[in-house]
Amino acid sequence: MMIYSSAIALIAIVAYRFKSLTGLGALTAFLIGVLIAYFFEVQGLIILALFFITSTVLGRLKASSFTREKEQRTSLQVLANGGVAAVAALLVPFFGDIAVYLFLASLAAATSDTWATEIGRRYGGKPFHLRQISKDEIGRSGAMTIIGTIASLAGSFLIAIAGFALFSLPAISIVIITLAGFIGAFIDTVVGAFIQEERRCVVCGDLTEDKHHCERQTVFGRGVPKITNNVVNFICTSSAALITLLFV
């Protein structure tokens, strides 16, 4: 366990130094990693690494038609994406393999959502917004592209096939986890389109999920106040975990 903890600490420090995580975000990631290592051992750490490394790499790819500052993940963002996986780890002594499915499905959804977002923004062209039923600006919550949707399915499948191999699960687990992760990411998009809080820039008038835009504080625009992107991401991962309970 000491070796695992040291490795997790090193990764968290490196992520902080390269500005992928804030200081508190790195500490939160370390604690989640230790929990996962304790209950899921090296298999769980590999799954967690697949999510984190692919998300970080995709987030730093050069954008062809969409530019955004490199964002440091905060502790709330880490919890939104990894909190359900940590809870699943705590459930291992009580539920065994069911907890494994919950763990894999939650990270499949987080990976699915991240791949759809990062790849769709860069290579998907103008997205289709679910609520407006029309093409929309790149980067807005609730919008989808064909390329992003394919990437979403691929990200979920990556976690599913890795979980199948590492945890010696039955072959049907690949289908269950892939679909649970993909559906969880789609729920994320639906909530983003219809419920998530959007704020309006007082300078350019654009709708955004950010609290600051054009170097000015934004004001409430539409949606449900306090239903931020972190809340939506938590709904995404928890939905995927709950979906697996229908099949295991």
From TrEMBL:
<dbReference type="InterPro" id="IPR002794">
    <property type="entry name" value="DUF92_TMEM19"/>
</dbReference>
<dbReference type="Pfam" id="PF01940">
    <property type="entry name" value="DUF92"/>
</dbReference>
<keyword id="KW-1133">Transmembrane helix</keyword>
<keyword id="KW-0472">Membrane</keyword>
<feature type="transmembrane region" description="Helical">
    <location>
        <begin position="141"/>
        <end position="166"/>
    </location>
</feature>
<feature type="transmembrane region" description="Helical">
    <location>
        <begin position="27"/>
        <end position="53"/>
    </location>
</feature>
<protein>
    <submittedName>
        <fullName>Uncharacterized protein (TIGR00297 family)</fullName>
    </submittedName>
</protein>
<keyword id="KW-0812">Transmembrane</keyword>
<comment type="similarity">
    <text>Belongs to the TMEM19 family.</text>
</comment>
<feature type="transmembrane region" description="Helical">
    <location>
        <begin position="172"/>
        <end position="195"/>
    </location>
</feature>
